[in-house]
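Budget justification, computational time. The allocation requested in the original proposal was used primarily to generate structure tokens for proteins on the priority list. As evidence of use, we reproduce two of the resulting records. The first is shown immediately below.
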Amino acid sequence: MLCNVQQKIPCVFETVILEGSSAKRQYQQFNVLAGDIPWLWARHDIKPNKAGLRKQKQKGKLKHFTKCEQNESQCSGAGEQRPTSQSDATDGVTILWDLEKDFKTKPAEWIPASGVKLVDGVPQPDDNGHIPGWVPVDAKSRQHCWHLSVVNLEKGFAFILQRRDDHLEIVTCDMAELCGCTLELIGTNVNGNPYKLGCKQIPLHLLIRHGSIPISADLLIDRSQLARWFVDCEDGKIEGIVWHCGEGQLFKIHRHHLQLPWPVDDPKLSMLPVTIRISHTDDEPNALFKNLSDLNNSTFSSLMVICK
């Protein structure tokens, strides 16, 4: 069973936001209704504005001050406790957010991600001070240009990188088959391009469904063993591991959690042979479609040599 990662790129039907009381949530004064067009959505967190950032900065000062007080109390044997108005079970300091004044404005069609805490129907910030959510990819937005390069919204298909036995495939897939799934956008202009796809002159971007590229190693959940595997094994040249559990829970380990560097030279994903299989047609192809169509049914030694 593959679980969805509600902090990345989901593919769902295009939705319409209508004012009015929600039938699902008593306090929500809008309805999110599904249309009949599959659509790509991009993650969009609502983050603190300048006023909110000042509160976060003040939290850091209070946290440092609280720790200093605790250290002094331990040294002197005093029994004083940190102020309860600023304490919680995590780091001793909480922020009293003003959700109307401390955060940037939400886009009109923004919706909260699954799992975001709601209080009276209002999405609440997480421990990082962000409210995770989604916006539909805007076909006219430069901000979404690389998302748009991997989909044809009119014909409803996307470019997907998937595992097939001991090699990879770049395929076109109907977006209707991906509805409700979450995917990762990788490529030339995304996150520093750790997989070394394409080049400036011929950028290459692809979507990978979360959980679709398994690892074959039988690993114990042991910190030292995992660290050795990441360092010593060729299969360990990956960014991290996500465990998909039967009840929809997700657990992950990233190389950074083990104080290991990322990116690495010759990551595992980039070193597998890859075949291009384009099954859709497009009368007005974008650059990616044209480039990959010209290479259709070709096999390459790795992702790194395509579009170079």
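The second record produced under the same allocation is shown here.
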Amino acid sequence: MKKQLIFYGVIIVTFIIYNQFFQVEDAKTNTIINILFASFIFLYIGYLAYVVLQKLKKPAKSKGEFCRI
């Protein structure tokens, strides 16, 4: 799970850096790029939620163990 969260952080930082320093001059193209970037970010949030739910569904191996995320 740590790898997914690090990757999510990298995506967010890339989005912020793009919007601060590397914007396209054409407003329409820039808007399309931002929409696609944001859509990918929200899709990845959905994927992370799915992974967490799948890990929570798995039963613990014994009575004394708790599920680790």
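A brief technical remark on that second record: Residues 12 and 51 are 19 Å apart (CA to CA).
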